[in-house]
Amino acid sequence: MNNQSVNRSHKKKKTRLKPGAAIALVVLLAVVCVAVALLLHKSPAVDPLTDSSASPSSESTTQTSDESISEPASSTDTSIENVITTAEPSNDVTTEPTKSEPVPTSELTTAPHPDELVTSVNPDTGRIVVDVNREDWNLIVVNAGRELPEGYTPQLKEILGCGKYLDYRVAPYYEQMYLAAKADGIILTPYSAYRSYDRQKNNYNNLTKSYMSQYNLNEADARVKAATVILPPGTSEHNLGYAMDICGTESSFSSTKEYAWLQQHAHEYGFILRYTAEKQPITGIIPEPWHWRYVGVEYAEKIKNSGLCLEEYLDSIGVPY
Ligand SMILES: [Zn+2]
Q1: Would you say residue 175 lies in a domain?
Q2: Alpha-carbon distance 290 to 266, whole Å?
Q3: CA of 284 to the centre of ligand 1 (A)
Q4: Which residues form the domain of 294?
Q5: What value does the mean pLDDT take over residues 117-131?
Q6: pTM recorded for the entire structure
Q7: Which of 288, 298, 311, 312 is flagged as catalytic?
Q8: Residues less than 5 Å from ion ligand 1, measured at CB
C-alpha cells in the first residue's frame, strides 16, 4: 500500500509538472526566438560602421577631398572615420572638456615651482635644456634656443585609434576637439602628431650630411642650414607630443573650412596656432596654419586674446620657461 501510494503520488507529481515544463519550454523558445530576431536585426546595423559610404554626405565630401591632397594616406582616414563613428555614443568622449587641467600625476605635483625651474645648457648645442617635470607642463617651450633632454620620450596616448600619438595629457583634448568639429561637419584629420627624438635626430643628421657634400660645407655650417628645413632633435613640439599637424581639404590649409573652424574653436580645447607669419621673427618658424599646439584651455584663450605668440605671452605675464 505504501509503495502504491508513493507510486501514485509520483504519477500525480509528474502529471502536475507537465504543464509547468511545457510553459518553461515555450518561454525558452520565445526567448531564443527574440534573441535570434535581435541578432538578425542588429547585424546590418553593424556594417555601416565599417562602411565609409554610410558617413554623412558632408564627411564623404571631405574624405574625398582629403584624398586629393598628397599628405594623408586614405587608409588611415578610413580607420579614423571608423573609430570615430564607433566611439561617438560614448559619453566619455562626447562630454565637454572640463575647465580644469587633466589630473597631474603625483610626480608632477611635487615638481619645482616655475620660479625654480631646473634648466641647464647642452654644451654640444648651446641650447637651454628645458625642465620637462615642471608643474605647469602645458607651458613648456621648445624652440631654436631651447631643447628637450636628450632622448626624451613622453608618456603617449593614441589618438582616435588612428596610429598617431600625443602626450597622454593632451590626447583627450584633441579627441574632444575632433568630435566637436565633426559635429559641425568638419573633419580634423590628424596628419603629424608625436615624432620620436631619435627619428628627428636621424632625419636632421642625414640632412646635415647631405648638405656637407652637396654644398661642400663644414659640419657646423651644414647643421645651421639643415635646421632651416628640419628642426634639430628635441626642439620640435612634435618631439614634445603637444602638437598636431592637421590635414585640410585644400592644398593651402589657411583657406580651408577646417582652418576657419580651428581659428574659431581650437582654444576651447586648449590649442593655439603656434607659428604665424607675423611672429616668425620670434619663433623662427615659417607660418604653419596646420600646426596646433596644446597649452591648456585657460592659456589658449588668454594667448589667443592677447595676440601674442607663446614666448611673448609668457614673458608678458612673467612666467619663466
Ligand atoms: Zn607641426
Answers
A1: yes
A2: 12
A3: 13
A4: 50-316
A5: 88
A6: 0.65
A7: 288
A8: 245, 291
Q: Ligand 1 centroid vs 242 CA: distance in angstroms?
A: 10
Chain centroid to Cα 176, Å, comes to 9
pLDDT(66) > 80:
no
146-147/128-129 β-pairing: parallel
- Provide the residue count of the chain: 321
Residue 72 near residue 62 (C-beta atoms within 8 A): no
More confident residue, 139 or 13: 139
d(CA 166, CA 155): 8
Share of the chain above pLDDT 90, in %: 59
35 belongs to a structural domain: no
C-alpha cell at 306: 592677447
Q: How far is the CA of 287 from the centre of ligand 1 (A)?
A: 10
Ligand 1 centre and the CA of 292: distance in Å? 7
Average pLDDT value for the chain: 75
Q: Which residues contact 83 (CB under 8 A, 6 or more apart)?
A: 160, 161, 162
Number of domains in the chain: 1
CA–CA distance, 92 with 172 (Å, rounded to integer): 10
Q: Contact at 8 Å (CB) between 201 and 233?
A: yes
Confirm whether 135 is a catalytic residue: no
Cell triple for 45: 546595423
CA 208 to chain centre: 31
> What is the distance between the alpha carbons of residues 182 and 272, in angstroms, rounded to a whole number?
19
Contacts of 150 (CB under 8 A, 6+ apart): 122, 197, 233, 234
The two beta strands, 189-192 and 164-167, are: unpaired
CA 238 / ligand 1 centre spacing (Å): 6
Q: Report the DSSP beta bridge partners of residue 21.
A: none
Residue 6 lies in a domain: no
Q: Which CATH number belongs to the domain containing residue 182 in this structure?
A: 3.30.1380.10
In a domain, 107, yes or no: yes
